[in-house]
């Protein structure tokens, strides 16, 4: 378990009382409280007693090297992996006590394992996102149709809506799956590496969709991103993990430091401020025994945990 002292919204305030911090914590739409997550094939937990909460109406990005536990943590928050200990709260309720449809009306998930029949059309796939809002024998309503149209428009899928999913490129499939999740019309959206394996054009399209959601709605988004610069550009808050432990959390400019890149990602890099967030210029991979060579003004790994929210 990591030993940071920040509250679980990712921003620690030295002026908050313990009671005040705890109260704000439970007001968050999605909270993981001291969660322990593991797989039956492994002897040790992947996540061992970490706490995190998503800020309402904001984008929280989970970043870290391969195997750091970020996707496992997202699965725990999405009720795809049951905690061995601790709890996940969705709108203040233990997610384990909620029925599947009740969860799906509040929380949408885009996982890396999404599959569908190749013969289904994009439009029909997007309509599947409406299943939490309908009974088994209910027909499609005007509300369903409107939600699907909004989702297709936002995801930019109008030109491929009649095509079969099996005929699409990887980037087009990803946009179709995003449209399906958007059609659920949830208050919380979890995305697991939505830009991985996409070309630059489709990466930017996905990021623009997330930015639009953040700027034009009150939706709460938690996203796992492989690219730390993308995360810094996109996120309001970042959480950095290594070996299943949260190493730092806070604003992108406070998390993405030369020291953190050395300690968490094991690279030597230069970080500069830009209008689109911190820019990372990788220099070389670090190896055991290397001394950190970043400038004296680099933040300590847990510097972000001392930031007071504005």
Write the layout of secondary structure elements.
Blueprint (H helix, E strand, L loop, with lengths): L17 H9 L3 E8 L9 E8 L4 E5 L6 H8 L7 E6 L2 E2 L5 H7 E4 L11 H6 L14 H14 L14 H14 L4 E5 L7 H17 L3 E5 L3 H7 L2 E6 L2 E6 L1 H4 L2 H6 L3 E6 L6 E7 L25
Parallel strand pairs: 3-8, 3-9, 6-7, 7-8
Antiparallel strand pairs: 1-2, 1-4, 4-5, 9-10, 11-12
Radius of gyration: 20 Å
User: What's the overall average pLDDT, rounded?
Assistant: 86
What name does CATH use for the topology?
Rossmann fold
The biggest beta sheet reads: 6 strands, mixed
Return the CATH class.
Answer: Alpha Beta
Secondary structure: number of strands: 12
Low-pLDDT residue spans: 3-23, 295-310
- Look at the structure and name the CATH superfamily: P-loop containing nucleotide triphosphate hydrolases
Share of β-strand residues = 15-25%
Cα end-to-end separation: 28 Å
Please count the helical segments: 10
Q: Name the shape in a single word.
A: globular
